[in-house]
Amino acid sequence: MNPAWPAIFPLALLPLIFHWMPLWRRNDIWFGVTVAPGYTDGPEARAVLHRFRIAVWLLALAAVILAALAASTYLPWALPVAMTLEIGGALAAFAYARRQTLPRAVRPGPRSASLTAAPEGLPGGIAAALVPYVILGAAALYLAINWDLIPRRIPVHWDFIGAPDRWAERSWQSVFAPLLLGAIHTGLMLLIALGILRASPRGRVAANAAATAQFRRAILQFLVAAVWGMSLLLAAFALIPRSQNSLGGLPQILILGLLALAVAFIWRIIRINRTVASGGDGTPDECWKLGFFYFNPADPAIFVEKRLGIGYTCNFGNRTAWLALVLILLVGLVPVLLRYL
Amino acid sequence: MSDDTQIRIDLDASTPVNRQIVDQIRTLLVEGALPPGADLPSVRRLATDLGVHFATVADAYRTLAEEGWLEISHGRSARVLPRRAPAADREADDLFRRRLRQLVAEARSQGVSAKKIAGELDSLAKGMIP
Prior knowledge:
Chain A is mainly alpha-helical. Chain A contains nine helices and nine strands.
């Protein structure tokens, strides 16, 4: 099978996400701009949305045609170009829609903060941080004890349908790599959760403090659940060689479970944003570059709520945020380094 | 969600942000909404919540500490102190009269009756514990 064909699936899925993404927002934010209550239901706002969606679908059509061309003629450059066209084009369309909305921007109201808000913690407390490491540690211990029972040649990569397509000789790198990645992933996710807890605003707009608290809680719960799920999944991958390359479809079940979890949480967060009178987010519009990059050196927050998509984004005007990004980049290089150790 | 200890700042207001923070926290302290022994958020936490520089909040806390309202020490959250109101000197009296005069003039120009102003002042003054 030409490797280009599976890529057509995400290319076809992305426009669906971009189609709905502008609606995953607080009630008084439209294409990254703070607007007056009720503006988003008016004909002008709807026309902006309509034009954005037409652009997204035309770009998607062009990307799929390009990818299909790559599938039939095997052009190695066509797939990256198609993906860049689709994502980059959708972001450009978003930035253009924002420009059309900016004349309707309203100044955000006063910022607020509670002096007696109860301190927040990680959902699940210390267990939230320990359980993933216990799972990964138990798998590592089991593999170390049963080292001689691990086959000399083990699978290290699987294709789209779950069949192994790359193998490696038994070594500590190949056997423990999934567990090491799991430990790093857990650490990073927990650091991000800690960053959200400590270095993001708890709710700058008094009218929507309750919605913001719910939103924060849901995001943190999702992070913890995802960390637990990923630890289980990577432990299962690490145990595959020892189980004669089969765990009765457990990895596939875990992947589906993680996807279901993501969909459920996304749905819940969208509902929090859309059904509660959530208003704006208290960040200045002029600091949102292109509508999705937050750059505000005067704001000590490292993380702020996204205006495109769901969750939190970095304050690129904050030096600590850059340090965090460099750290994530370095951690991303670990799998590459493992090959040379 | 009702929160009696919420402060609000307006970046477009002519009053500096540190002054706005000081005035609002002092009001909560005088009203008794923040009793002695209560911990205030750390400088970092409050600055992040309000989206202002750490130094702005630190300056506000320092001002309140100098007035005897707060105990601040490095690495710990600010704590509300029991405080006995000092005897008002002539300077404080003058400042109060000047500020009140401006405020009353503003209220009168907006149509608020003299009786209403007097009643509000009376109830506010009696309701606050210095």
